[in-house]
Amino acid sequence: MSQIYIAPSILSADFTNLGSDIEMLNNSEADFIHCDVMDGVFVPNISFGIPVIEHVSKMASKPLDVHLMIVNPDQYIESFQKAGASYLTVHYEACTHLHRTIGRIKNAGMKASVCLNPHTPVHLLEDIIQDLDMVLLMSVNPGFGGQSFIENTYEKVRKLRQLIDQKNPSCLIEIDGGVNYQTGAKLVDAGANVLVAGSFVFGSEKPADTIQKLKLV
């Protein structure tokens, strides 16, 4: 099996001590720092935007994995690149012209990723998968941390793994929502290779140890 990557979500970090949490991630075995951008329109919550990404980028030594849960993401592609994003994820459900959007992300110098909500089937990516660096599957409904894992995700991962192996073997499969040691192990077994974890990491007594153990599931 390929390498497993861990992407802790700073949505669950302590924003009164964000610098120390970023420093902990820098010194941990985390591979990416996952940043959830929510606009209160595409999802029923508002998180943070470009200024916070800029500050995190200045402190972080790990690549920023920026997940845009917003309407009209095309309007901000270059701004997030300037803010420091390495991976930029847009939602299939938010992009009318997905191929064009992916092209703009790559032309801006970032890795391009597409996210599918729990109800969106994998087969809709058949004609774009060859252009992607990563696919993010939501294993909870997007908008809030700490939700229960949706069991159907394992089958979705298996279907996506088949599609990727056929058309673009280097494309990563990332999962966000309800990730812990048990679900993480099953997701990796199904074919996932990037695990996003927010409350499971930052809510633990020793977050760096939790990250290390997640890599071994």
TrEMBL record:
Its cofactor is Fe(2+); Mn(2+); a divalent metal cation; Co(2+). Binds 1 divalent metal cation per subunit. One of its GO terms (biological process) is pentose catabolic process. Substrate binds at residues 9, 67, 143-146, 176-178, 198-199. It comes from the Bacteria. Keywords: Carbohydrate metabolism, Cobalt, Isomerase, Manganese, Metal-binding, Zinc. The keyword Zinc applies. One of its GO terms (cellular component) is cytoplasm. Pathway: Carbohydrate degradation. The active site is at residues 36, 176. A divalent metal cation binds at residues 34, 36, 67, 176. Its EC number is 5.1.3.1. Catalyzes the reversible epimerization of D-ribulose 5-phosphate to D-xylulose 5-phosphate. This is Ribulose-phosphate 3-epimerase. The gene is rpe.
